[in-house]
Amino acid sequence: MAEAFNFELVAPERLLVSDEAIEVVVPGTEGQFGVMKGHAPLMSTIRPGILKVRRPNGNVDEYFVRGGFAEAGAEALTVLAEQAIPVKDLNAEDIRSQIQDAEEDVKDAKNDEAKQAAETLLSQLREVETALKAS
Amino acid sequence: MASLKDLRNRIASVKATQKITKAMQMVAAAKLRRAQEAAEAARPYAERMETVLANLAVAYEGREDAPALLKGTGGDQIHLLVVATAERGLCGAFNTSIAKLARDHARRLIADGKTVKILCVGKKGYDVLKRELSQNIIDTVELRSVKQIGFKHAHEIGARVLKMFDDGEFDVCTLFYSRFKSVISQVPTEQQLIPAVFEKDEAAESVVYEYEPGEDEILSDLLPRNISVQIFRALLENVAGEMGAKMTAMDNATRNAGEMIDKLTITYNRQRQAQITKELIEIISGAEAL
């Protein structure tokens, strides 16, 4: 049995989770990564996606996170997300409206750089949508 | 000398006022609790953000290639003041003290020959500042219809400030708000947003982090976010402070109204008695004359 470590999920409005976890899977900008106790110090930005938390009692909680970063240490993991919603409270509407916003951003983008950023965001959001549908 | 009827009317009207101030005080007290909770809930995020950025910023100290948000544009000719106040009055000196701090700052800058631009968040600050600095005010953001301030409101303001910065419309950005110290004490505060200033934490742990993606990317991702986060925090502290100030102000008003009612009642009773005595004398002396 793996050991537990402290996990905190913080959104600007409130502290969502501050509890023990066995393993947390974070959607990092450069790919998903799992964090367990004793992880090397790591700082990573996150992309829109699903964050999975495995609790000591075996339950797995899922959260939709968007924008922000994760800070992992040997004893603790802190995820600061601009938006964090438990997946069970998340409805398809939210994601769809975000996708719509992103689509508009792609259209409105003035230069290539902004357009590329908006497109990346859009594709990431679409991924989340399909992932949610599948589950 | 006011007649008995006048006195009665005045007492009734002061009582009505007292009822209103009392109700406002209770509403403020209820809202204060919620606002305080919101402000406290937002603290961990802002604090974490600051620690992480401070750690990152140290690495960039004095370097030429530091992001503009960190080292500034190099000039300090044009100043942007973001003045966050409440949307409503009747909260004592709360709005005035924030506006005053901003005004003094603006005066000082103007005296030094700098250009000052002001972005008002909240109507009350605009009302105070427009008297003297109306030509400096570029816009007002109204949050009047907003019931609960969410991160997206702060983010909109933040995005706007960033856009202006990218367009080279100012060199230094300072945020004015009121820090919520306790229910009876709110401290008007100024905080420099751009270039970002971090308190140096000497005891900062010297853990070497692995960065993913690179430090540069993380920093350039986080600095703009930090602006919104700081504005968000300021707005929440403001709401809590406003409610605290309103509660105190309304408490005072209720007490004053009570004193006034007491005084008026005494005058009223004296006059009533005097009138009765006068009528008695008239009857008695009338009877004696017969």
From TrEMBL, chain A:
Membrane topology qualifier: Peripheral membrane protein
Gene Ontology molecular-function annotations: ATP binding; proton-transporting ATP synthase activity, rotational mechanism
Localization annotation: Cell membrane; Endomembrane system
Entry function: Produces ATP from ADP in the presence of a proton gradient across the membrane.
Record-annotated ATP synthase F1 complex delta/epsilon subunit N-terminal domain positions: 5-84
Gene symbol of the encoding locus: atpC
Coiled coil (UniProt feature): 92-131
Keywords associated with the record: ATP synthesis, Cell membrane, CF(1), Coiled coil, Hydrogen ion transport, Ion transport, Membrane, Transport
GO cellular-component term (any): proton-transporting ATP synthase complex
Protein name (database record): ATP synthase epsilon chain
Tagged with keyword Signal: no
Subunit description: F-type ATPases have 2 components, CF(1) - the catalytic core - and CF(0) - the membrane proton channel. CF(1) has five subunits: alpha(3), beta(3), gamma(1), delta(1), epsilon(1). CF(0) has three main subunits: a, b and c.
Family membership noted in the UniProt record: Belongs to the ATPase epsilon chain family.
SUPFAM superfamilies from the UniProt entry: Epsilon subunit of F1F0-ATP synthase N-terminal domain (SSF51344)
UniProt source species: Stappia sediminis
Main location: membrane
Keyword Transport on entry: yes
From TrEMBL, chain B:
Gene Ontology molecular functions: ATP binding; proton-transporting ATP synthase activity, rotational mechanism
Annotated keywords: ATP synthesis, Cell inner membrane, Cell membrane, CF(1), Hydrogen ion transport, Ion transport, Membrane, Transport
Annotated GO biological process: proton motive force-driven plasma membrane ATP synthesis
CDD domains in alphabetical order: F1-ATPase_gamma
InterPro entries to which the protein is assigned, alphabetical: ATP_synth_F1_ATPase_gsu, ATP_synth_F1_gsu, ATP_synth_F1_gsu_CS
Pfam families: ATP-synt
UniProt-listed Gene3D superfamilies: 3.40.1380.10, ATP synthase, gamma subunit, helix hairpin domain
Gene Ontology CC annotations of this record: plasma membrane; proton-transporting ATP synthase complex; thylakoid
Membrane topology: Peripheral membrane protein
Subcellular location: Cell membrane; Membrane; Thylakoid
Membership in a protein family: Belongs to the ATPase gamma chain family.
Assembly with partners or alone: F-type ATPases have 2 components, CF(1) - the catalytic core - and CF(0) - the membrane proton channel. CF(1) has five subunits: alpha(3), beta(3), gamma(1), delta(1), epsilon(1). CF(0) has three main subunits: a, b and c.
Described purpose of this protein according to its UniProt entry: Produces ATP from ADP in the presence of a proton gradient across the membrane. The gamma chain is believed to be important in regulating ATPase activity and the flow of protons through the CF(0) complex.
Name of the protein described by the UniProt record: ATP synthase gamma chain
